[in-house]
Amino acid sequence: MIRIMMAAAGAVLVAGCQTMGGASTDAGSAGSATAMLRKADGTQVGRAVATEVNGGIRISLDVMGMPAGPHGAHVHTTGRCDGPDFTTAGGHWNPTNMQHGTMNPAGPHAGDFPNVQIGANGRGQLQMMLPAGTMAGMLDGDGAAFVVHAGPDDYRTDPAGNSGGRVACGVFERT
């Protein structure tokens, strides 16, 4: 776990039961975008807030109503979340043409995130700094989405870390 956290370029894992309104996200600052995460049936299960800061993009993730355990989470290249499988979100955001995963010698993708740990209460939070991009690059002509997967990311298998199906998705919209 320590190796994964160190390789994830400053990721901070926080599992808890804070309300979505209580998370610190800086959603109102310039250069921010929010993705409201929904399951295929339309049920809202959280949000991801991206904020451009010196050195990259900080993303704060807050999810609820999800099965307990680790779940892969990634920024995807296209701002579409059509159910039931959210494949319209495209692949992982990867402007530098790397392979997937922080444990892959040819990786990672710019949109690779550590697993979000969902507690027994169905809640999980995660904050990550994505050093390889800008909001303008992430929110290009076709936008971007944030996706939560059914299973854990193995941090090395290209293209998506064997993290399973896409169970929640949200399109980033500027705030």
Chain-wise SSE layout:
Elements: H1 2-7, E1 12-14, E2 32-38, E3 44-53, E4 56-63, E5 69-71, E6 73-76, E7 116-118, E8 124-130, H2 135-138, E9 145-149, E10 166-174
Antiparallel strand pairs: 1-8, 2-3, 2-10, 3-4, 4-8, 5-7, 6-9, 9-10
General description of the model:
The protein is mainly beta and 175 residues long. Helix content is 6%, strand content 34%. The strands form 2 sheets. Strands 1-8-4-3-2-10-9-6 form an 8-stranded antiparallel β-sheet, with no helix packed on it. It is globular and about 35 Å long.
Q: What are the key terms here?
A:
eight-stranded antiparallel β-sheet, globular, Immunoglobulin-like, disordered N terminus, two-stranded antiparallel sheet
Q: Enter the CATH topology name.
A: Immunoglobulin-like
Which overall shape is indicated by the principal axes computed on the Cα atoms? globular
CATH class: Mainly Beta
State the helix count: 2
Class of secondary structure makeup = mainly beta
Low-confidence stretches: 1-30
Report the mean per-residue pLDDT as an integer: 82
Oligomer: single chain
Instruction: Kindly give the count of domains.
Output: 1
Strand order of the largest sheet: 1-8-4-3-2-10-9-6
Backbone CA Rg: 14 Å
How many strand segments? 10
N-to-C span = 34 Å
CATH architecture: Sandwich
The CATH homologous superfamily: Superoxide dismutase, copper/zinc binding domain
Helix share bin: under 10%
What can be said about the biggest beta sheet?
Answer: 8 strands, antiparallel
Proportion of β residues? 25-35%
Order of helices and strands: HEEEEEEEEHEE
